[in-house]
Amino acid sequence: MKIPFLKRLYLATRFVIKGQILERPMPAIPAITLEEVAEARSFFPLDKFFIFGHARSGTTMLVRLVRLHPQVYCNYQAHFFTRPPFLRSLVTDPEVSQWLTRRSNRWNRGRDLSPVILRATADYILEREARRAGKTIVGDKSPSNLVHGEAVRSMLSIYPDAKLVYIIRDGRDAVLSHRIQSFIEFPEQLSREDRSIREAFIKNPEPFLHGDHSLFTPKGLETEAISWDRNVRETDKLGRELYVDHYFPLRYEDLLDHPWEQMSRLWVFLGANPDQSGLKESLLQEFAQNPDAEYQEQKAGRIANSVQKGKRGNWKDVFTQQDQRIFQTIAGETLSKWGYK
């Protein structure tokens, strides 16, 4: 396809002024066909699932629990569909795209090979680990709060036959946990104002722990609330519409209250029988552990010990009245829908 004259003039001018040429937008990658799915499963037959969730919503704990089952393997954060550059970046280079689509490449059967390449790549990555562990069901957990519902659409284009698990946590606890994590693990990424809040919190945490001083800037909390609200609304809506009975929403708080009952439901959903000798005991033992809290304590114990990690309702003590109003104004409807009063 030829570039229009004005477009060519713009590109040439940009090159002269800034020494760079803008790339032409890439055509959309087609979705995998049912025939291609069947072919892929003949090579990589293990059942696949993906765990999505907003950051700090319990995805890591869910991985530790789900893979206790002798049939199920799950690992961390391949971000096939949830964080740039995404799985699709493997085929978006113009030269690669041309090779996969050109007519003289008779291996592509007259169709863009991109979805086949992407499916085969992800299948191999997933199954090589699961087979080593002797498991027959394999999944990846990757927080989806950077792209929200778009992650579901991207997943469907490559894995229409997979299962989607989505874990939801009270957004106020999720963003509070995320804030503490940023104080502990990523202080260098904080703004000047955020660093000032962090330093004040370290010197005297009490006013922050009793709702007198806020751990957030108003703008920062607005951004966090918008992100949580959008992630939950879009992911749940598209999960139900696109995956129907292959979609499993799970509240973090229900998992805390009834770990065995909730995990049994999830294993059945994935196609694994929970009636396994010693599985309940292993689950309850693992459930009592909190390796992430131990890691944060070692890294910055003074901050980590101020707010109990994984506990529900921490926000009730820590949020100021203004914090509560901000979050309620933005995400109150979604909180109510999921039973968060």
CATH superfamily: P-loop containing nucleotide triphosphate hydrolases
CATH topology (level 3) name: Rossmann fold
* Beta-strand percent range: 5-15%
Quaternary state of the chains: single chain
Helix proportion of residues, in percent?
55-70%
Q: How would you spell out the order of helices and strands?
A: HHEHEHHEHEHHHHEHHHHHH
Largest sheet: 5 strands, parallel
What does the average pLDDT come to?
Answer: 90
- Structural class by sheet pairing and helices: alpha/beta
- Separation of termini? 56 Å
Helical segment tally? 16
Q: Give the C-alpha Rg.
A: 23 Å
Query: What CATH architecture would you give?
Result: 3-Layer(aba) Sandwich
Neighbour order of strands in the largest sheet: 2-3-1-4-5
How would you briefly describe this protein structure?
The chain is built from 16 helices and five strands. By secondary structure, the chain is α/β, with parallel strands linked by helices.
Question: What this model shows, in words?
Answer:
The protein has a single domain (5-337), classed as 3-Layer(aba) Sandwich (Rossmann fold). Helices cover 55% and strands 8% of the residues. The protein has helices at residues 5-18, 34-43, 59-66, 94-101, 114-132, 150-158, 171-185, 192-203, 206-209, 218-243, 252-257, 259-270, 279-287, 291-304, 314-318, 321-337, and strands at 47-53, 72-76, 137-141, 163-168, 247-251.
Please tag this protein with its features:
341 residues; alpha/beta; Rossmann fold; 5-stranded parallel beta sheet; 16 helices
